[in-house]
Amino acid sequence: MKKAQNYVTGQWQKGTGDGVPMFDAVTGEVIALSDTTGLDFAEILQYGRDKGETLRKMTFQERGNMLKKLALYLVKRKDAFYELSYRTGATKIDSWIDIEGGFGNLFANASLRKLFPNQSYHVEGDPIDLSRGGRFMAHHIMVPKKGVAIHINAFNFPVWGMLEKCAVNWMAGVPAIVKPATNTAFLTEAVVKEIIASNILPEGALQLITGSARSILDTVQSQDVVTFTGSASTGRLLKSHSQIINESVPFNMEADSLNSSILGEDAIPGTPEFNIFIKEVRKEMTVKAGQKCTAIRRVIVPEKLVEDVQIALGSALDKVTIGDPRLKEVRMGSLVSKDQVDEVRERVEEISKTAHIVYGSLDKVNVIGADAKKGAFISPILLREDHPFTNHAVHEKEAFGPVSTIMPYKNLDEAITLAQMGKGSLVSSITTNDDNIAKDYVVNAASHHGRILVLNRESAKESTGHGSPLPSLTHGGPGRAGGGEEMGGMRGIKHYLQRTAIQGSPTTLTEITGIYQANAKYKEAEQHPFKYHWEDIQPGMSLKTHKRTFTDTDIINFANLTWDHFYAHTDITSLDGSIFEKRTAHGYFIISAAAGLFVYPNKGPVSANYGLEECRFLRPLYHNDTVYVRLTCKQKVDRDVAGAEHPSGIVKWFVEVFDADDELVAIATILTMVQKKQETFVE
Ligand code: NDP
Q: Start and end of every Aldehyde dehydrogenase domain (predicted)?
């Protein structure tokens, strides 16, 4: 019998034991044996930490480009993954969520490179001035942790589960060790085989353990990060591992979640919202055969609409064909294993001690194209709990399959309380066309949820759905949902970076952060800064301009040119009682005049004005006031537009406008597009 392999310490390795069978969820056949006997987890973890140096030294741009390349490479090979995915019981759509959803995470994280500096560490937030004289300040930097990310994953998303997490730690510069659930590790293995064969990742960036790893946490260290997705009981066991506690290892947990979906009181039968709600609940019950951490478990509806919802959901579920997930007409495949069928049955039996089953049966399922006895098939089960305030099983027992329970509420406060009785969920949704109801629900229920979707006739058309966590949004929930947080764009990446406050002089912090800090020493440019190409410009490079005196005519002319006739510029008889003493220059005139002073007019590497940020006018400037400008390179932001005809980067320039007494009167950051050296210019 074929054995799944583990990719550890730079090689594919088979276990030395007998192995545990991994079953085809549809036919019951054994696909391969999972075997991790003989793996030395201490060595595997240390290997990752040591080899991580390469990733840590790469810049965010390089890491992002690596992810994009990997995603493109995997997309080309997706067909083989779909074939294997059917064997987990997943339909084509289910597999798309897992496989291409996983690749989507690589792409989305790759795009985040543009939000980070072009270096191996991040500079976070705004500078903090700590002194009166401007010579002592602080900033926060975030550097890659010098450990490994250990991902202990659930069976339901063997590809997405790996990639949504790895995309993030790779972007941060941290290597990963992935331990998928044994049941479906054969699919994860197939994807990792391609990843390793691609040679796109540096060696050590990814190790794979395709089976049991009971002692994997025994040697975790303080620089490592552990993530867990699975059952609450295993999660709690691992979170309280002595090594996790002793070494203060961050432990991100995503466990059971009894997600709710609320039908607004306005969404009566006949409204688009009623139909949207029924469709969404059916979808969430049956996609992935309900084996989704974000699936709708609790269907909370106005008391007077319970019957309508029950009937409408029943007929919607009637249309769900169950069977061999390869068949086009099949809408719902099987659960992942026979064990999982037993587990779901047990949970439903617990819930139905008080609730009653109003749709489906635990004993009977109609299946097409497969043998119902051999595969892990189960019918969708809809329950109804009429007393959800007194009977708590529905808020506590997660049947991880196509199972949901309808329950009534009398008013929105009750609906909110019921949602909260789940004691913390990954996601909740409300379907209503009344934005007051939506606001009331969202603001009051948010404390207990990681994400809330509001559906109505407008949003439903383009909604990504109740069950879809998105790479740019936080995924995780408080309490029962584990209290963790994954993805969420830049936020997710920061979980693998150490945030450190750095204190020192503005000049020192300019060097450390790569961003010019106000009051730092200027590096006088040897020629006009606009004459330099991208590569030769450095933060701090500075130019002091000649001076200019604003005249009364300048101000009048600017008013006429722009049609900005605000009284302070045009009517000196109205200045009494205002903050202005004399005819005042327009703020935009100050900035325009500043540009007139600092711009180098000849054709050169600066190809365009790209915009303006953080502009402030610190005091009014009057006619006869004289100004000069300091133009200082603040920051360089690289752009890697593939195939660009004129490769360029963005340079942010700090513009300080001073008056004749050297007092700062205005500041702005202007952005220019500066060409890289491939271009030649005629001076
Ligand atoms: P488990 O919690 O048993 O397993 C999750 C992961 O943890 C698997 O990779 C498993 O590996 C691993 N694991 C289990 N015990 C240990 C240990 N002592 N040390 C190290 N790793 C360990 O969940 P299941 O996958 O079996 O699913 C069971 C239930 O969990 C489901 O029925 C469902 O209720 C819930 N669940 C919730 C999810 C969510 O996101 N909310 C997702 C999936 C499941 P191995 O497979 O090798 O045992």
A: 12-499
